[in-house]
Amino acid sequence: MLKHIRKFAVIVFFLIVILIVSFYVKSLNNEYVLDITVANTFYEISDGFVYFGRPTCPSCELFKPLLTEVAKEENIQVYYFNTDYFRNNSLLTEAELKEIFEKYQIQQVPILIKLVNGSLDSSFGANFIEEESGKIKEEIRDFVTYKELPIEYIPHYTIVIILFIISILIIVMLFLLKNKIKSKKIIFILLMTNISTIIILIFSIKPMMDYLEHNNLSKDPKMVILLLMTIVINLVSLIKLVIMYNKFQKREDGTEKSGSDTISEI
């Protein structure tokens, strides 16, 4: 049984490594400020950030590199609406541009807006000089990272917290009450609980990573740290439980053997 548990632990470890590495590689391949080249792309944006600017605007040329740096650091994708590009290539009429500017309250560039369900949620714009770049960069960061805790975030935390508490209770019981546990059945129940917890955690990694990425929460490490801590605690508990289970098994085997010898002697 110990060999099977070891194989299971190794498989769990490699699965976790593969999932984390794939998530990291995916984040490296992100294009953080994406040019909008056709009007339909803009109209299809329901949620996210859109930056309005143009190369002929001095403040825009200072703003865009700062926005790109922040987007990369915070792992956030921003769409770039180049007003010169749409005018010069006649992709939108002046009437259509005016309608967009009025709908999203674009009165000057550079301006960064946040869309939620296709509607304007908030905006941030600034005309500034190069000496103010540091201040503006932090203001951009504050704007793109500010969010109320989404309702959907609570269940994800709740599941991991419950599993974390269960894991802590198991490992505390093992280390503080190990001399008082006299039944192999109890060890077996704890072992199955431990393995079930690990399986649930494994299946929750991918959805959790996708959720964090989709909601631009990848820079919020609390949930990931809690998840990894829970996995580590469970692996430690698993090893401890297997050792205890084998000791009980050997003790029972020894008792049976001793009993058989006594009967033979009689």
Automatic annotation (TrEMBL):
Keywords: Membrane, Transmembrane, Transmembrane helix. It holds the Pfam family DUF6568. InterPro entries: PedC-like, Thioredoxin-like_sf. It comes from the Bacteria. The keyword Transmembrane helix applies. The keyword Membrane applies. The chain crosses the membrane at residues 7-25, 154-177, 186-205, 225-243. This is Thioredoxin.
